[in-house]
Specification:
Radius of gyration: 26 Å
Strand content: over 45%
Number of domains: 2
CATH topology of the largest domain: Lipovitellin-phosvitin complex, beta-sheet shell regions
Oligomer: single chain
Number of helices: 1
Number of strands: 16
Amino acid sequence: MELSQYVTARPLHCVIIASNGVNICRLVCVEMKTTTLILNLALLAALPVAGNEHTLRYHLSGGMQLNMVQEIYVGDRSEAIATRNFSMTLDLGDTQGNDELLVELASINGNYTAHGMNQRLTTSHLTGSEFTLLGDGRSFKSQEGGGEVNLGTITDGGLRPSELLAGLLPTLPDGPVSIGTTWNTNRTVLSLAAWAWASGKMQHHHTVTDIRLANGGRVVYVKTHGETEIESSDGHDGFLGSGALSQDIEWVFDANAGQLLSLSVKRKTNGTNQLPQGEVSVRQIARFELQSLDGASR
């Protein structure tokens, strides 16, 4: 603090005059008559968050809750003919090494509803099981193996929680980000499209929409969009010809802790399934919610 003029110690009336874009403020303190005191303050506070850049790298740990809801439509019907729901609680090991993430399925539940009848899917065999995701600090992929949930006789394969989690975790950028930063990533998206597994190579476009201070750290808000053509995935034959997949994602990342705080996905698919009754035109709307249990997003 630099004192440029001092006249009196009597009670003063003070006004702060600031100039945008600089870290210098002038505090003008005026006695109610004519005596004036001017203090020049050199503020040492950090620049606005919007002006800072932050590098995003995964250091996942702690608990996460994953919920999934799929609504299945047939032909031109406006009402869903079937729904599929999953709820999972995941315990994540520390990823300080960036190369492996050990995940325990603390709990998992699923059900399938069609024609007004609800069927509870068998998931108890996976409770307490573990799987490992391979990472490089920016993204993760699932290894071969790991348990799966049987989705019924008409679905051409089961659901593997390891593939589901790896496919949801977003790919982080190479360099630092600030508000307005954009980047593109490419990855193969595997999706259950009604009763068949399909996949396609998708380019995702990411945009940082906000960065906020929270609990002493920087929290980064991102919106992501991607769309691609899909076809039957390797090892599956229930999806016929080509179809389409699009998804919109909003996610929140703690840049200081390396934690994904929350992620919300809306995914739309359409195409043709091969079912026992023949070829069926299908549409599906799926929603995924992934939430950290150790830190609330803002």
